[in-house]
Amino acid sequence: KLPPSIISLSHLRILKLGHNHLCSLPRSFGSLKSLEILDLTGNDLNEDSLTNDFFQLSNIYIFESVAQVLRHSLFCI
Asked: What Å distances lie between residue 14 and 30, 39, 75, 76, CA to CA?
């Protein structure tokens, strides 16, 4: 589990969390506006584990396994 304090890292650009058995992200994860690369491969995330503000992140590259979840979520909204 990620600590909620991670959202205070406002200048964070790269976050590699692959293969950590994460099943959710902290609330307000979308406040990481400087985030450019996010690796969540090999975790247990699904569309229900992503908060609405996660979708407000722009200019971000998300590794393939999470991108598949996002594509499904975007078409279901």
From this structure: 14, 8, 27, 28
Q: Could you tell me the domains of the chain?
A: 4-76 (3.80.10.10)
Place of tokens 């994860």: 29
pLDDT of residue 65: 59
The 10s digit of each residue's pLDDT in 39-51 is 988 888 877 777 7
Claim: this prediction has a pTM higher than 0.85: no
- Residue 13 buriedness (CB in 10 A; 0-12 / 13-18 / 19+): exposed
CB atoms within 10 A of CB 9: 13
